[in-house]
Design goal:
This protein is mainly α. The chain has 8 helices and no strands.
Length: 326
């Protein structure tokens, strides 16, 4: 589009967004995009002999005035789309549920990673135990090879003469002792290899468990910190937006605040009429004094807990200070 045509479309969308201040932001954006896409579609499909700015002005006149078009859009929306205190609170609660759901999915991912670490540790322990078994089997084989010659000599001695029987028996006894000692050493090596493999597997599992727990704790703390920072950023942004809105249109902001205040006062008054309709004025005054006492106690507890929390944070940072400096 030409520059003059773009100016016409932008001015129409500006007035349209200004008229749609009572609806959510995404509705205003969608309405402006719909106007712009309709103008571009008509220009591309139905060319006209008129200059483009005049043709764009005729296309925009088909919507009527921006205020009338905005009223038609608001009339088509369900009542929940209008921005009120209740709908704003509902949007905040929905965002909180989304944040908690994302945190839960993150914790599930951490648990899955910990499970994978545990499976890897078990596999490592099994492989170490297999290595120990193979080593013990090799030791037994070497023991059998070493005892082959004494066994053959014992056989030859037994097949010899009777005069060499005593010598053969003594040699067999000695060879038997050697074989027993070698078998004992092989069994000890086998038990030692199995014990070392199990200890290594257990140590690996414990280390992986500690790492998984530390990682999960770090992730949880990071998620909580991000949630806290996001909440603080949202509050700060809301404060700045409220300041900007108050600076640009203080009467509109005052009207919205006054409307919200009247809604709260009306709701409280209706609750008071529903709950205290059958109570005498004397008891109502007593209830008011009790409520003021509860207010004082809760404020004191809040200040006390806030101070305790600040003291704990300060003490933790003070303890960590020398360790970090080292």
């Amino acid at each position: 589009m030409q520059l003059e045509s773009q100016v016409l479309v932008r001015e129409f969308n500006r007035r349209l967004r200004a008229a749609l201040t009572s609806v959510p932001n995404h509705v205003r954006v969608e309405a402006a995009l719909e106007v712009e896409s309709h103008v571009e579609d008509v220009l591309s499909r139905r060319p006209s002999t008129l200059p483009e700015p005049e043709w764009v002005a005729q296309i925009l006149s088909g919507f009527g005035t921006p205020e009338a078009y905005a009223a038609a859009i608001v009339g088509q929306l369900p009542p929940v789309q209008v921005v009120t205190v209740r709908s704003g609170l509902r949007e905040v609660l929905t965002a909180g549920r989304d944040l908690m759901g994302g945190t839960g999915r993150l914790l599930l991912a951490v648990l899955r990673g910990s499970w994978r670490f545990g499976v890897a540790a078990v596999r490592t322990g099994v492989s170490l135990a297999g290595a120990g078994l193979r080593e013990s089997r090799a030791g037994l084989k070497r023991l059998a090879d070493w005892s082959a010659e004494p066994r053959a000599a014992a056989g030859r001695s037994l097949r010899g003469s009777r005069s060499q029987l005593r010598v053969t028996l003594r040699s067999a006894w000695r060879n038997g002792l050697r074989l027993g000692r070698a078998a004992g050493r092989g069994l000890l090596r086998l038990a030692s290899a199995l014990g070392q493999g199990l200890l290594r597997a257990g140590g690996t599992g414990v280390r992986l468990g500690r790492v998984a727990i530390q990682y999960g704790r770090m992730v949880l703390l990071a998620a909580l910190r991000l949630a806290l920072l996001a909440g603080l950023a949202a509050l700060a942004l809301s404060a700045f937006l409220m300041t900007l809105a108050s600076a640009l249109a203080p009467d509109l902001v005052g009207w919205r605040v006054y409307e919200a205040q009247q809604a709260v006062i009306t709701g409280v008054q209706s609750l008071r009429e529903d709950w205290l309709s059958g109570v005498s004025p004397t008891l109502q005054a007593q209830f008011a004094q009790t409520g003021l006492a509860v207010q004082t106690i809760s404020l004191s507890m809040g200040l006390l807990l806030t101070g305790l929390f600040a003291y704990l944070v300060w003490s933790i940072r003070r303890r960590r200070g020398p360790a970090v400096s080292k």
